[in-house]
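Sample entry (461 residues):
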Amino acid sequence: MSRPPLRRAEPPWPTAADVAARRAAGWRPYPLDSFVLKMHSRCDLACDYCYMYRARDTGWRRQPRTMAPATVERAGERIAEHLSAHGTREAGVVLHGGEPLLAGDRALAHTVRTLRAATGDGVRLHVSLQTNGVRLTRQRLDLLGELGVRVGVSTDGGRAAHDRHRRGADGRGSHTRVSAALRLLAGEPYRPLFAGLLCTVDLANDPVRTYEELLAYAPPSVDFLLPLGTWHVPPPGLDPTGRRTPYADWLWAVFTRWYGAPVKETQVRLLDDLMALLLGAPVRTESLGLSPVRYAVVETDGSLAQDDALRTAYDGAARTGLDVWHHSFDTLLGHPGIAARQWGADGLCTQCRACPLHPVCGGGHYATRYRRPTGFANPSVYCTDLTALITRVRRRLAADLGGAVAAAPGEPGTARAAGPGPATRRVCGTPPSAPGPLGEMGRHAGRDDGPRTTPMSAEVG
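Predicted structure, serialized as tokens:
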């Protein structure tokens, strides 16, 4: 598939009138069941690909460093109010940043206890934390275990791969500290807290070696994240002509190694979700498929925001003008940006809706569709790579299942397993994708955590 040409302008963003018209026609928003709380708005690393601090949006500079106790309490009240109003009995909260461990142990404990007290015994609240791992000590793991908080860690593989990007402000790599923290987390008695790893794809790294370096920590799950980019600032190494598909090639190498293993070594969320979609099963992640977005971000000052990944598009793209002091989460659901990401295929541009792969790719992550003057009404900048990857995986599954994978992927009931081959062994028994925003705003730490859509915001850490 060639790169989509610049087309006639479509509406770059739905308007309040569009939302009102859909409501009048009978559409109702899906309630939120996942919440990202920004515990701290700064970070102790200076990763060169970070979309929080190196993107077009500089709003983080105006945020308080730490979420105040009163803000935490108000956010807890708003979350409880929303869950109660919709009869939701299971939900997730991701403690995020910046680097959430910079908030300190007292703030972490106060936040978790406040949230659990607010939601009460009638809600099963899954709390996770996404960290860069630098400050993850035995003492903090003891505290997180006491609080019932699962932990996701961001790392890009072995020392060379990790330290190429994930450095401190002084230029020193962080691999030694992160690796020590991961060995702690992966061992007893902390292993039950280990939610998984986030790894940003770097074309300079060997894909199989990267996967095996991550596998050395025996993670319960790995999420490979495509670097964020737009049509104006493409991801590094992307072929603007569409003749080469470097990201598809990289992920296909991981798929071949992972899928071909005699036993399933770990969940690879992106690949698990891709196979599930090809076999007709729904998944709840924003990176693939058409599931409605059901999460929101609470900044350190209490403002309500969309996915942090939108910061790569333009300054202010993630802002909503709402906050926990004056607005409910139901009000946030009426924001055109949130509503558009709950409309499934109707939220895609005309070109994507005409493509038979759209039930699987979902048009790609929302942030990667941005292009002036059409805004987000475009295919993803990864369109060609996603097409190549989906096609290759589909062919592999079709071969294993006797050709039973649908020609138009994503339609329920089109895949009939011919026996317990590799595909059915991996998909059957795998929990539905969704637990928590750990991936990639996650985002969210762990797929067995509950029914939540993955925000990309959980992919900073």
